Amino acid sequence: MLRAKLTIAAGMFAALAAFPAGAQSLAETQILAGLNAARAQGVTCPGTGRRPVASPLFASGTHALAARTQAGYMSSRGGITHSGAGGSTPRVRAASVGVEAVSVTEIIYMGAGAGPQGAVTWWLNSPVHCAILTDARYTHAGAAVVQGARGTAYVVVLSSQPK
Length: 163
Fold this sequence. Notes:
Keywords: Signal
Pfam families: CAP (PF00188)
Number of helices: 6
InterPro entries: CAP_dom, CAP_sf
Largest sheet: 4 strands, mixed
Strand order of the largest sheet: 3-5-6-4
Distance between the termini: 25 Å
Mean pLDDT: 86
Order of helices and strands: HHEEEHHEHHEE
Strand content: 15-25%
CATH superfamily: CAP
Low-confidence stretches: 1-21
CATH architecture: 3-Layer(aba) Sandwich
């Protein structure tokens, strides 16, 4: 357990060193803007049909830090995974940076040359991801984009209202 906590902490420090606290890249801003545009108009998700309009996601620095931790981990490993350093889960990573919510989830994408809009489009064309992104119970989110040797990792951490 201690080893897992130390591994998570090391990942967070690496993510912080690569990206100043409080700063948000243009790509991360574009991801949240794209998700909020879809939520504002409602979308038709493959396999699940028309989704109702949902309130915009509130941009959260703590959520972005949790996303950045996983994006950095995926980038360093060169692959997509919801398991993080030390086997951590999205809920554990979010809680480790202060996210306290009933529902926490993470969406990920990794690819070369897709760009933020490409990631958003891919998520909206995926039945599971589209349903999550348009779920009105999610009210807070943070995005991270980390470039790696095998492509760019895109991660969004979403949660319900804080507990």
